[in-house]
Amino acid sequence: MKRILFAAITLATGTAMAQGNYPNRPVTLVVGFAPGGGTDITARTLSKKFGDYLGQQVIVENRAGAGGNIATDYVAKTNADGYTILLGNVGSLAVAPHMNSRLPYDPLRDLAPISMGVIFANVLVVHASEPAKTLAEYVKLANERSGGMPYGTSGIGGAGHLAGELLKMMAKTNLVHVPYKGGGPAMSDLLGAQVPSLFASAPSAVPHVKSGKIRALAVTSAKRSASFPDTPTVAEQGYPGYEATNWYAFVAPGKTPKDIIERLNRDIVKALTTPDIRDQFLARGEEPSPSTPEELRRYIEHEYTTWGRVVKTAGIKAE
């Protein structure tokens, strides 16, 4: 009995010491989409400053596929030691369970909230060769075009997909979803006129709208985006009540110790509120929105309920 007790005390002391020395090696920040999309851009913008405060390098790792679900499942099942965390989004953290009853993870149970990252609108953009100059013209064109109007997104169940399905429902228009493995590949196809329209994240759309290669028709938030001040919201253009806000949040495996979560939260919040980092996000239309772990938990639970109703009404299914 004494040996067992001594071993237990030694193990507990060793665990506490290990956590007290955290972090003593690089931390991996997993992104569920291909390079070049909004989530990837956000992660790479923050990773250096986050690492400076953490005292270790933060390495961004892309694990694309299934609208971010592959990466989310990977992080949910990895070691809960604080060395692998996720920059997740509304799709994998609040929508996926409503689309797939066999989802291998439960975001409310298997992941530990750290902090909200950024909140922002998506923007409906079309290739410059498309005739639609307004949302009304886009809707009209969708109803007239044989087979409907294809619109690309970063994946099934993501914020762009939800934004498109909500517009389809409210406008009663013929929109056809074309999912990609991330915003980067979707934007590449839009620029190449392989897909005529796209619900894109503001960070990925801004430079191409400015260059004139694509045209912004509407933003999906309740109010206009700082990135597109001259682009009206969907609600302004005849669909009051329309709102489909995107967000990226930091989460860890569900059993990550509380002191490690608190350390990660502290340094992420510092990075998000650093003036030069904040200015970079704001210039792209992203609102840095640091939070406590509990605030993020409540936010995810609210989004989980809200978008669950949309998925059910629209009949969205995982492929």
**What portion of residues belong to β-strands?**
15-25%
Number of domains: 2
Q: Report the mean per-residue pLDDT as an integer.
A: 91
CATH architecture of the largest domain: 3-Layer(aba) Sandwich
Q: Which shape, going by the Cα principal axes?
A: globular
Termini distance?
A: 55 Å
Supply the key terms.
single chain, alpha/beta, D-Maltodextrin-Binding Protein, domain 2, 10 strands, globular
Question: Your description of this structure?
Answer:
- The chain is of the alpha/beta class and 319 residues long.
- Helix 2 links the parallel strand 1 (27-31) and strand 2.
- 46% of the residues lie in helices and 20% in strands.
- It has helices at 2-20, 38-54, 69-77, 90-99, 107-110, 135-144, 159-171, 183-191, 202-211, 258-273, 275-283, 293-314; strands at 27-31, 58-62, 84-89, 111-127, 149-153, 175-179, 197-201, 214-219, 245-253, 287-288.
- The chain folds into 2 domains: 26-119 and 246-314, 3-Layer(aba) Sandwich (D-Maltodextrin-Binding Protein, domain 2); 121-237, Periplasmic binding protein-like II (D-Maltodextrin-Binding Protein, domain 2), CATH 3.40.190.10.
- Strands 1, 2, 3, 4, 5, 6, 7, 8, 9 and 10 form a 10-stranded mixed sheet that branches.
- Helix 4 crosses helix 12 (293-314) and helix 7 (159-171) packs across helix 12 (293-314).
